[in-house]
Amino acid sequence: MVRKVVRGFYAVAYAVKLCRPAVICAYPITPQTEIVENLATMYANGELGNCQYITAESEFGAASILVGASATGARTFTATCSQGLILMSEVLWNAAGMRLPIVMVIANRSLSAPLSIWNDHQDSMAMRDACIIQVYVENNQEAHDMIPQAYKIAENKDVMLPFMVCMDGYKLTHAYEPVDLLEQETVDSFLPPYDPPIKLTTKDPLTFGCYAPPHCYMEFRVVMQRAMMRAKKVMEEVFKEWAELTGRNWGGLIATDYMDNAETAVVAMGSVVGLVREVVEEMRKDGKKVGLVKIRSFRPFPTEELRKVMKDVENIVVFERAVSFGYEGPVSIDLKSALFGHSNAKVYSFAVGLGGRDIPRDLIRKCINNAIEGKVDEGFHFEGVKEFEEVII
Amino acid sequence: MKITLGAVSKPYSALKMKTGDWGTHWPKVDEELCTGCGTCEMFCPDMCIEVVKVGEEEVNGKIKEIKKAKVNYDYCKGCGLCAEVCPANAIKMELKDIYKV
Amino acid sequence: MKFFFSSGHGACPGCSLPIAVKNVLYALEGKCFVVNPTGCLEIISSQYDRSAWGVPYIHSVFENAAAVAAGIDAALKALGRKDEGHVVVFAGDGATADIGIGCLSGMFDRNHDVLYICLDNEAYQNTGNQQSGLTPPGSNTTTTPAGKILPGKIGRKKDMVAFALAHKIPYVATASVAYPNDIRRKVKRAVEFEGAKYIQILCPCVTGWGINSNETIKVARLAVETALYPIVEYENGELVRVRKIKERKPVEEYLKIQRRFRHLFKHPKGREIIEELQRIADENAKRFGLDE
Ligand SMILES: Cc1ncc(C[n+]2csc(CCOP(=O)(O)OP(=O)(O)O)c2C)c(N)n1
Ligand code: SF4
Ligand code: SF4
Ligand code: SF4
Ligand SMILES: [Mg+2]
């Protein structure tokens, strides 16, 4: 293992290479571009073996190319975000229904309009219901480590679903961080070659992508839900195996800090977790009974795990990086429904850092304190917003 | 009912669908006129008319197969295309008995 | 099962799509992977547990067949399985010329080893005869209905042959389902070329065109004999062959037997459209030297 200071995009591109994908296909979009540029360089230098690297005409085309490749039995990779992910969305729903374990990195970025290239989670949240596994990573080491794990989980016969590794655009993709880069032998010993139970082949000419009339459509949705639920167990197992193999234990579907005897749980996903953890540590030093709950897997949603850790807390503070307009933040929506009937905790939900707005440490502390001290109402708030006047022109 | 991974289906599973009752007419092949040329077979949209060997004959000292068009009424939709394209005019479309008053 | 496409599919009686498909698969002896976007062919042949296909087949969505095919091509190359078979797309005119044209351009541009066949029934037939970029002028579709003022579709049929040629792909041809031998020959010729191939086959639709179930072949022949549907063949950008016409027929002969054009014979603007169509036919005959 070599520790190197690398940027996030390189950390994931390098991990992808170690997973020996057969077909890589993507379309550039800020801030994902450097991921595929790095893969293109490896391809140009002959470092990707027999892999085919295809420059698609759009994200829609890229996702479609991977549907064909994956159905033919190839391990596939793509990366995108924001407008690109939304453009892919029709195909990604289709890939999930066809049970194709395509792995992709989402360099999380906000959605237009207004146009913004900066980070929040609105893009991947829009794909929440598509039967695609979504894991949010906190730093570049976790992003690097997640790639081989993503393949192993997605390609598990009990799962067979697409997988999104969500890493915050710029904040992680472009950040320099020290990363222990995996060795090829380590990945090879962990991740077997892709051998799907069914594939397109003239030797056994199956029909893929059938339509289902009302007499059988619903059953296919039932088995998709089952696959997602089975994925929880598979993920726990793979995460554990990874921890044993590399010594790096990232936790399960959730990871917690300071949650023993915590009265207030602070929930976050993605790169903001690091900052939130620091604030929680400081508050602990001040004698405040706060703890951190990092949600790693947003789909499948860690319902049981959250119920367990939140059992005795009085306040829950959620830092949201997206909005379900007309309702509230998507994480607290799901969290509340998971805890309904299991907890009487008050839930305070704060949308922060939308479209790349800075998330200062003081803001995080203020939000948590306000919730603990009852200075804000329960429910949904935008935080870090400037004073403004809403006008027509 | 079996629910397969990703709704994948077996080849030719459509054969379970007998479409022979869709049409009002049947094609009837006049074996006297049929030369076994296979034109109808190349055109039938439902893969239900086929040229098959019905015997052999000797032509100039050589053994030649005698072939005639045979209809599979389990699937024939009675479109009438075979009758239309037959160069020997060997196929007539006949009203099915159940439609006769 | 020499046609690799079975009975029991759900096409309207007399539909010409299966005729094109069976002849293509026959020519390739079933050694192929089929990609088929949403449309009539997909709906009639790929209901769950009711597949008519005897070759590996995939349907993804309406507008991405060319890209899915490119993915199969890439996977076969990466996995060292190129010898398993050809990659063939069967796509409707709407899937090809309208909604899927971006993916098609990408596939042509990257020159994947794919035979792309457009089954041209000149409208969105699966959804009930709405106009497409390949609907000819004057056609009465449900989105270009003949009304008191408008005489059906205004505008021309998109020139997809020119589109394909502009991408400098090695093989481009048109065909008509009236001539299955020609289809088979062209398919065999096409797959001799490495790279992207485009064949557009005219496939009359019984319901959308308003013809009898036993007339699809006759109509497919008349389209060629009037020069409204020129049958051409390009290799490496060169026109190498055309289907000559012995005695070119006036377009009226073709139009009058189809419900989609019948209004032209009484609509105030109908004459104008018929003349326009005749002009198009004359242009085709001249441009490709169709008259014998
Ligand atoms: C994105 C999307 N838009 C619209 C549709 C509805 N739709 C399904 S098939 C079809 C028309 C197909 O037309 P064409 O490609 O010409 O094939 P045909 O059915 O005529 O053979 C339409 C509009 C769809 N399935 N997906
Ligand atoms: S087309 Fe006519 S002559 Fe030829 S095989 Fe068929 S029925 Fe016989
Ligand atoms: S009537 Fe139509 S379906 Fe029946 S055999 Fe003739 S061509 Fe085939
Ligand atoms: S609507 Fe037209 S194209 Fe579709 S199955 Fe019927 S005849 Fe064929
Ligand atoms: Mg069409």
**Unreliable segments of chain A (pLDDT under 50, ≥5 consecutive)?**
none
Molecules bound to protein: thiamine diphosphate, iron/sulfur cluster, magnesium ion
Number of strands of chain C: 10
* Coarse shape of chain C: globular
Using only CA atoms, what is the Rg of chain C?
A: 18 Å
Overall, the morphology of chain A is globular
CATH superfamily of chain C: Thiamin diphosphate (ThDP)-binding fold, Pyr/PP domains
Helix content of chain C: 25-40%
The end-to-end distance of chain A, rounded to whole angstroms, is 58 Å
Give the rounded overall mean pLDDT of chain C: 98
Biggest interface, chains and residue tallies: A-C, 44 and 46 residues
Rg result of chain A: 21 Å
CATH fold title of the largest domain in chain A: Rossmann fold
Fraction of helical residues of chain A: 25-40%
Largest sheet of chain C: 8 strands, mixed
* CATH architecture classification name of chain C: 3-Layer(aba) Sandwich
**Helix count from the secondary structure assignment of chain C:** 12
Order of helical and strand elements of chain A? EHEHEHEHEHEHEEHEHEEHEEHEHEHE
N-to-C SSE series of chain C? HEHEEEHEHHEHEHEHHEEHHH
Output mean pLDDT of chain A: 98
**Total beta strands of chain A:** 16
Structure characteristics:
heterotrimer, A: 393 residues, alpha/beta, Rossmann fold, 2 domains, seven-stranded mixed sheet, 20% strand, C: 292 residues, eight-stranded mixed sheet, two-stranded antiparallel ribbon, 37% helix, 15% strand, binds thiamine diphosphate, binds iron/sulfur cluster, binds magnesium ion
Description:
The complex is a heterotrimer of chains A (393), B (101) and C (292). By secondary structure, chain A is α/β, with parallel strands linked by helices. Chain A folds into 2 domains: 2-246, 3-Layer(aba) Sandwich (Rossmann fold), CATH 3.40.50.970; 254-382, Rossmann fold (3-Layer(aba) Sandwich). Chain A is built from 12 helices and 16 strands. The longest helix of chain A has 30 residues, at 217-246. In chain A, 54% of the residues are buried. The mean pLDDT of chain A is 98. With 101 residues, chain B is mostly beta strands. Chain B has helices at residues 39-43, 81-85; strands at residues 25-29, 49-59, 62-71, 91-95. In chain B, the strands form 2 sheets. Chain B has a two-stranded antiparallel sheet. In chain B, strands 2-3 form a two-stranded antiparallel sheet. The longest helix of chain B is centred in the middle third of the chain and has 5 residues, at 39-43. The mean pLDDT of chain B is 97. Chain C has 12 helices and 10 strands. Classes of the chains: A alpha/beta (393), B mainly beta (101), C alpha/beta (292). The interface between A and C is large, with 44 and 46 residues. Strand 9 (207-208) of chain A pairs parallel with strand 4 of chain C, so a sheet runs across the interface.
